[in-house]
Amino acid sequence: MTDAARVLELLVTRGETLAVAESLTGGLVAAELTSVPGASRSFLGSVTAYATPLKRELLGVDGALLAERGAVDPEVVRQMATGVRRLLGADWAVATTGVAGPDPQDGNPVGTVFVAVAGPDGAECTAALRLNGGRTDIRKESVRNVLALLSDELRKNASAQDTEQNGGN
Prior knowledge:
Distance between the termini: 34 Å
Helix content: 40-55%
Shape: globular
Oligomer: single chain
Strand order of the largest sheet: 2-1-3-4-5
Radius of gyration: 16 Å
Number of strands: 5
């Protein structure tokens, strides 16, 4: 079973939905999710905000943050995830931003990637990645990593809910 299939299965079981905000992956996360039969049961849609102004205009990323740090930043990717979650009305969202190459961007070397997850009850997680290889490899690994991060967060969130429902501390 693929990472995308595992994530979608967890979401369907929980009755929850997913939205995606992508930059460097340019739609690859959404394509991976929609390659799974039945994805529409939990996947709502995506925004590919490749151009930096779209991150601000569509996803609500703070303009001052973008001006100060550029688009390749952990706080930017966190805001992308929370923004697309709000915009599409999803329970969960993931986001990707980074430098796939061939050239550095905003002082960040090729292979610098940030991925994020935003979920219900303030659940948020961001990961910084240093990926090797060419542009295609970096983009594919970014997809794999963001789906793995979401899978981990869904499992942690489920464990926390089980503990609360069963009277744990």
